[in-house]
Amino acid sequence: MGAAVLPILFFTSLWAAVGIGGSIITPHGPQRQLIQCILMLTAGCCWLFWLCCYMAQMNPLIGPRLSRRAIQIIAESWNMPIKEG
């Protein structure tokens, strides 16, 4: 299971638009550079957070731990008997 290209391109372009576009349309004033810096840092951090969450779903470190009884119930409900071996 690998990464799909479309979500990565979409969210990269979305956060690039927020960081670059937001800094371009910032009104002139005494705090313009500060606002531009805040917008770019926010976009970069949000993109990085999204990327980490997206990549963590590709290979989760922990999975569900089911008891033997829960596995038996699932097997019975799916009509797949467990073969004792």
Question: What does the model show?
Answer:
There is one protein chain. By secondary structure, the protein is mainly alpha-helical. 65% of the residues lie in helices and 0% in strands. The chain has one domain. Helix 1 runs antiparallel to helix 2 (32-56). The mean pLDDT is 89.
Please give a quick description of this structure:
The chain has 85 residues and is an all-alpha fold. 65% of the residues lie in helices and 0% in strands. InterPro entries: ATPase_V0-cplx_e1/e2_su, ATPase_V0-cplx_e1/e2_su_met.
Question: What topology does this entry show?
Answer:
Blueprint: H1 5-24, H2 32-56, H3 68-77
What are the salient characteristics of this protein?
85 residues, rod-shaped, mainly alpha, 3 helices
The major beta sheet can be summarized as: none
Give the overall form.
rod-shaped
User: How many DSSP-defined strands?
Assistant: 0
What amount of the residues lies in strands?
Answer: under 5%
Distance between the termini: 31 Å
**Structural class of the secondary elements?**
mainly alpha
Written as H for each helix and E for each strand, in order along the chain, the element string is: HHH
Based on CA atoms alone, the radius of gyration comes out at 23 Å
Helix-residue proportion:
55-70%
Give the mean pLDDT.
Answer: 89
Number of helices: 3
Task: Return the domain count.
Answer: 1
Low-confidence stretches: none
